[in-house]
Write a structure and sequence with these properties.
By secondary structure, this protein is an alpha/beta fold. It contains ten helices and seven strands. It starts with 8 loop residues before the first helix and ends with a strand. The structure holds flavin mononucleotide.
């Protein structure tokens, strides 16, 4: 199978399965326990209909929308996923460029393998940083400061990763062992972000009070509650 044979996400999935080391493929493809929620989410997505707007003219197609105050050319954005250079040497650089090409937002994970600064200087379209609150308050603060300095427009505060999911496929492939060595692995990948982190041991229980004071401290960052995926995330929006 070749890249030229890939015409939809299922083809890309098969291609990835063929090319990636098994622990990496299953880390991306797998989910928690019996993967019931994963299947339900996929089925729920399949029930969405696209309603065609016929005889409306096709010269100027406008699919733009506003998400967290950011104008996007597409009604989709790229949500943060960790460790992208594990599965492609360009990782976040390529994904960020793709987001820019289509005029949509790029979400960078706290566990990214490219630095906040590099992404900030590389793409001009809206950028979202996904933040874990760490035991080390200075680490959390420095990440927020770096995002502000790198002109990130939005921040998503993750509150549902106090404990990791029971990812049975990973137990099978040995990925937890890999995670144990994540820090050195990240240093190896010469990351700008994730190398500072221990995951998930240092993520501390998130307190709403702490979040409020953080928000005030970093005013004019605004706040908007939004439901992003099967877990609650508080979105912070600049301006
Ligand atoms: C391999 C992988 C890694 C992910 N890493 C992160 C992460 O670091 N931070 C985060 O907030 N969400 C992460 N997510 C969740 C995604 O951002 C997204 O919300 C989730 O996959 C649901 O979207 P989907 O149904 O299109 O996959 C990850 C998802 C996957 C599949």
């Amino acid at each position: 199978m070749h890249l030229t044979d890939c015409h939809n996400t299922e083809h890309f999935r098969k291609f990835a399965k063929q090319r990636l080391p098994s622990p990496i493929f299953h880390y991306i493809d797998g989910a928690a326990d019996d993967e019931v929620t994963y299947r339900r989410n996929t089925e729920a997505f399949e029930t969405c209909d696209l309603v065609p707007n016929v005889l409306a003219g096709v010269e100027n197609i406008d699919m733009s929308t506003t998400v967290m105050g950011q104008k996007l050319e597409l009604p989709l954005f790229l949500s943060p996923t960790a460790l992208q250079r594990l599965f492609h040497h360009d990782g976040e650089r390529a994904v960020g460029k793709a987001a820019e090409k289509f005029g949509t937002m790029f979400g960078i994970s706290s566990l990214a393998t490219v630095s906040i600064e590099e992404i900030g200087s590389m793409i001009s379209t809206p950028k979202l940083f996904q933040l874990y609150v760490h035991k080390d308050k200075e680490l959390t603060k420095s990440m927020i400061d770096r995002c502000k300095d790198a002109n990130f427009e939005a921040m998503a505060l993750t509150v549902d990763t106090i404990v990791g999911g029971n990812r049975e496929r990973d137990l099978h492939t040995g990925l937890p062992l890999l995670q144990t060595h994540l820090r050195s692995l990240l240093v190896l990948l010469r990351t700008g972000v994730g190398s500072e982190l221990f995951f998930p041991g240092q993520i501390r229980a998130f307190s709403t009070k702490g979040f409020r004071s953080r928000r005030d401290q970093y005013s004019p960052i605004g706040r908007r509650l939004f439901q992003h995926y099967a877990g609650s995330i508080y979105g912070l929006e600049s301006g």
